[in-house]
């Protein structure tokens, strides 16, 4: 077996050895349990390619219809900008039809999808993105954020609120072709709001549940944040948050925290936004609450799981410091 890595290759070489020793083809067929026709094919393969002709290798299969370079040159730019093909968006079915019609290529649907996967593309729901952004302000804020994070005496916190509903919107899930997967809902307005602040440098997280988002609720949260994370002499604590009206009330007591407000329409620069997305995907996908208490208990369990895993918070909430 040392002469070939497979059992099939060993049997072929063994048959050749018996022929070399003078056994007849019929005897070799009986000993190796190969048909006589197969023994003749082994002899032909050996005469054409030597021993390499007897060692089985992987079949090359059918040739690619479109080389990878051609896919990258002709198809990938269209995916990035559908307007180049006079389209507003692509589905796999629409792209498959366009390729067959305009490239005159008989490419199967599954092959089209496989080619997209080879180019590291997959089907994703686009994230809504505001158009009226001041890129100069956003870039200037990123510069300040990098400076704060590089300062060893500065703790940078990211603060925000998020609403969690008892009937979360359905998300994509695996379903057998031809079947319809149902997502039940009650139709009742069950909702809780969560105030949260995370420090990605060490994974600290402070959260509180409220029914409403207003200045009074936010002050209660600031009280809890200051109590759980008291001031440390010689250290600076910065809280990054958006421009919600209750964040800018003059009577708020910020304790030892220094508020820094994000540029308008820049939720992507607030690292805690990714925590809300992670919670909703992991804990509220395919789950419904029959009453307010169930939703509150589920939220508490989800938040405790995050508080107990600071390493996940450090990874999930890394600040975005470049556009």
Features:
Nucleotidyltransferase, domain 5, InsJ-like_HTH, nucleic acid binding, 3 domains, alpha/beta, 12 helices, Winged_HTH_dom, 323 residues, 5-stranded mixed sheet, Transposase
SSE map:
Blueprint: H1 7-20, H2 25-32, H3 36-49, H4 68-74, H5 76-80, H6 92-102, H7 109-118, H8 135-150, E1 154-165, E2 191-199, E3 204-210, H9 215-228, E4 236-241, E5 257-261, H10 272-283, H11 292-307, H12 310-316
Parallel strand pairs: 1-4, 4-5
Antiparallel strand pairs: 1-2, 2-3
Helix pairs in contact: 1-2, 2-3
Question: What does the model show?
Answer:
Residues 89-141 form the Winged helix-turn helix domain. This is Transposase. Residues 11-63 form the Insertion element IS150 protein InsJ-like helix-turn-helix domain. Residues 155-295 form the Tc1-like transposase DDE domain. It is built from twelve helices and five strands. With 323 residues, the chain is α/β, with parallel strands linked by helices. The chain folds into three domains: 7-53; 68-118, no CATH class; 135-170 and 184-316, Ribonuclease H-like superfamily/Ribonuclease H (Nucleotidyltransferase, domain 5, 2-Layer Sandwich). Strands 3-2-1-4-5 form a five-stranded mixed sheet, with helices on both faces. α1 packs antiparallel against α2. 17% of the residues are buried.
């Amino acid at each position: 077996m040392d002469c070939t890595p497979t059992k099939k290759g060993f049997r072929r070489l063994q048959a050749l050895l018996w022929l070399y020793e003078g056994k007849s083809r019929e005897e070799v067929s009986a000993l190796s349990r190969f048909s006589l026709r197969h023994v003749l094919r082994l002899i032909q393969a050996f005469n054409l390619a030597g021993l390499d002709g007897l060692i089985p290798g992987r079949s090359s299969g059918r040739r690619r219809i479109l080389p990878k370079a051609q896919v990258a040159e002709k198809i990938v730019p269209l995916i990035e900008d559908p307007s180049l093909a006079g389209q507003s968006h692509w589905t796999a079915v629409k792209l498959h039809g366009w390729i067959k019609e305009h490239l005159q290529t008989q490419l199967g649907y599954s092959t089209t999808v496989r080619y997209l996967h080879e180019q590291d593309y997959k089907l994703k729901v686009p994230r809504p993105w505001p158009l009226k952004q001041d890129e100069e302000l956003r870039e200037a804020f990123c510069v300040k954020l990098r400076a704060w994070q590089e300062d060893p005496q500065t703790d940078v916190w990211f603060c925000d609120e998020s609403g969690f509903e008892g009937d979360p919107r359905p998300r994509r899930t695996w379903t057998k072709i031809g079947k319809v997967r149902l997502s039940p809902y009650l139709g009742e307005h069950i909702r809780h709001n969560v105030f949260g602040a995370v420090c990605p440098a060490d994974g600290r997280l402070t959260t509180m549940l409220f029914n409403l988002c207003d200045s009074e609720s936010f002050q209660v949260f600031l009280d809890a944040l200051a109590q759980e994370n008291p001031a440390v002499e010689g250290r600076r604590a910065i809280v990054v948050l958006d421009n919600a009206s209750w964040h800018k009330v003059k009577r708020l007591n910020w304790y030892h925290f220094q508020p820094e407000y994000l540029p308008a329409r820049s939720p992507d620069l607030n690292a805690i936004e990714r925590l809300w997305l992670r919670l909703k995907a992991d804990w509220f996908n395919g789950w419904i609450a029959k009453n307010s208490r169930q939703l509150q208990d589920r939220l508490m369990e989800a938040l405790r799981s995050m508080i107990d895993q600071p390493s996940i918070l450090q990874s999930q909430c890394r600040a975005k410091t470049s556009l």
